[in-house]
Amino acid sequence: MSVHTRNSFPFQNNWRLRPLVIALSLAFFSSAISSALAEEVEFNLDNMDISDRENIDMSQFSRAGYMMPGQYDMAIKINDNESPTEEVTFLPSEHDENETVACLTPKMMAGFGLKKSWLDKVTYWNNEKCARLDIMPGIILRPDLASSTLYMSVPQAYIEYQTANWDPPSRWDEGIAGFIADYNTNFNYSSPAQGSESSELSGNGVVGVNAGPWRMRAFWNGTHYTANNTKTSTFNWNQYQAFRAIKPWGAKLIIGQNDLASDVFENARYVGASLISDDSQLPPNLRGYAPEVRGVAKTNAKVTISHAGRVLYESQVAPGPFIIQDLSDSITGTLDVKVEEQDGSIQTFQVETASVPYLSRPGQVRFKAAVGQTTDDRFHLQNERLMAGEFSWGISNGWSLLGGGLSSGKYHAASLGAGRDLLSFGALALTATQSYAKLPNNQTRSGGSYSLSYSKRFENYDTQVTFAGYRFTEKSYLSLNQYLEASRKHLVIRNNAANKQTYTVSLNKQFRTLGVSAFLNYNYQTYWNRQATSRWNMSFARYFDVGNFKNVSFNLSAYRAQNSGIQDDGVFLSLNVPFGTSSGLNINAQNSDAGQINSLSWYNRMDERNSYRLGANVDRQQRSAYSGYYTHTGDNTLTNYSASYKPGQYRSAALSMQGGLTATAHGAALHRTIIPGGTRLMLDTEGISDVPIKSSGAATHSNKFGKAVLADVSSYIRNQAHLDINQLNDDIEAESPVLQLTLTEGAIGYRRFRLIKGQKLMAVIRLSDGSYPPFGASVLSKGRETGIVDEMGSVWLSGVNPEMLMDVRWNGNIQCQITFPKVLPIDESGETNLLLPCTEKE
């Protein structure tokens, strides 16, 4: 007996393996001919070098594509797109009992992405359980028992529209029931030279339950602050809601506490229900833009992004420019950004979320409708009912009609506009909104607001105007929030401090001949009775080679912010010199109203899980400071550590951890995450621990129960997860190392890798009467074929473990069972076979 890894197979024993190779060749030949013809095959045994020609079982090779009647767990692969593993029943054909066919149930057929017009024509047999596919000529089914896969070749004419990474709604997976608990925590410690030390623990997260297509979510945040022997704590559950996808309408239904998130009116909060067209359900080329936040951190800093008081994003960043691109494209309105530096200083600014003009394709209607009761920012109910609706109707090729209405108590607003696809000149939309409100003391206010938005990509100039917008608001115009505040506090509005004019521009430009990319964002806001606010930031980046140094980069970032008459300017210069592919040197210079800092840092990506940055800087007063930043991407958490020290000034440290728990009927696992509450995929490795799995980024490993969760997977986009074969242990084999699926928003997907773990060895199987199983008999482990018997009972087996049982099958039935000893012999020479008696199965 001998145990072999895949790199040490004993080819030197050719005399022993020759019959086995013949049997494996027959299996391969059978698979090959099954895809070409479905005829019975007769083998000339005289050409085979087998001593006992009477003791041969060719039943599984004699008919192309033949499967023994029964039920099989099989992955279904349609034109290279994989569907979930199903229990597929093979039955004798209704036309020929000597042939078997796969029974495709109505549920399976509905998930194959077939056009409804063809799906409606399909008839069923076997008590309406099995589809007849003859209505669609050209569909070919090919079962492969070795890989437990049913291959389906389907002509494109029968399939709904799909792209390389987008599936039609019929193939979207709603996931399984389960519980989630995600968190994002930050701990900051500061000890100034003058003053007392302080610490703050802050966090936010989501707790939720999935049931069928429904997702229930509860959002929380909290802080615990300690300074001067004083402790203060806050904790809030700040939003509860349930939502689900309405796939036939391309829409999303939300019930509970929600933001109006209007494309026509200003944002407001309410408790109730809404039904909205969901752009994320569209193919990627038809979707809008996700918001992006850019800024510059002077030191190790904590960045917090919130919307209407709810924290959307919170994380640590290293010194220098940062870009936050992990926000949902469903967010509209104004984002509040707070940058807390480790030297104690704080930056705050706002970012207007850009959106493309609210246009629709010809015949398409996009809509948003909401009904409920208004609330304040903390979702405390107010005595005002809310009804709102808006639409964008593609009335012709290029033109869209826009409009909507909003009513709450004694406040009413209506909006009407038009949009035009200007083809090579971009897209343009113009809207006018009129409000009417009756305030306390019978004061009446009526006014208008007018907006113009434009988006265009100039292909010939490598320029993209992501968004350009202008809005003018009359002094007498009231938003819903202004009306609610006045009603709640019984105010009489005489001097309206509301918005007057808003300008927003976001521009990208590529200078390909120079190797330069440029970005510009500009926001300017005027008010009726106070000073204007503005912020612009721009960046230039260039990559080039210098001698042996490749991909050297130069970055220039600058910003100006004005608020309440106070101006803050900043410029940041950075030169990055890579040393190899994973480390490099950063030289930075930063100048702002807060002072000047020149810094030098070294970064190193040790592996796909760990990286660090060490830096030193000096300010205008020649005072030095030192900092360190370390990131670890673990299976259970994403962790950032940072520390700063400035002699005679301060010392500080910070820690952030992002992770979660996902629990289902199949099991539970801790996992890392970035955006709490998002879509995720639970992967089952059949009880095998420490199996490396990759999707994007660093691999994650299955826990001791054989479960792993990939969080932050995309919704309505085809996701792929695969085993990291290079890191897989030699005693593990996978039938299919790659899985694909498309999940709806917030789903907990579930897939199982079909794995076999154990030794590989040569054995001899002997029956109770001293004879051997026939040549071609199959050895099965949990229903999976792990070996084919050659002459004299010899068989090469994989997935062997002590005391395990395997079945031996021939003539279509399980005939006997083999049991392995407690201690498996090890013989690297390959000279010895393990003798295994085969007894009747109890």
From TrEMBL:
Gene Ontology molecular function: fimbrial usher porin activity
Membrane topology field: Multi-pass membrane protein
Subcellular location: Cell outer membrane
Alphabetical list of InterPro entries matching this protein: Fimb_usher, Fimbrial_membr_usher_CS, FimD_plug_dom, PapC-like_C, PapC-like_C_sf, PapC_N, PapC_N_sf
Pfam families the UniProt entry points to: PapC_C (PF13953), PapC_N (PF13954), Usher (PF00577)
Keywords of this entry: Cell outer membrane, Fimbrium biogenesis, Membrane, Signal, Transmembrane, Transmembrane beta strand, Transport
All residue ranges annotated as the PapC N-terminal domain in the record: 42-186
Keyword match Transport: yes
First and last residue of the signal peptide: 1-38
Domain of life: Bacteria
Chief localization: membrane
UniProt KW Phosphoprotein keyword: no
A Gene Ontology cellular-component term: cell outer membrane
One GO term of the biological process aspect: pilus assembly
Domain PapC-like C-terminal, residue spans: 765-820
Similarity comment text for this entry: Belongs to the fimbrial export usher family.
Protein name: Fimbria/pilus outer membrane usher protein
Lineage, broadest ranks: Bacteria, Pseudomonadati, Pseudomonadota, Gammaproteobacteria, Enterobacterales
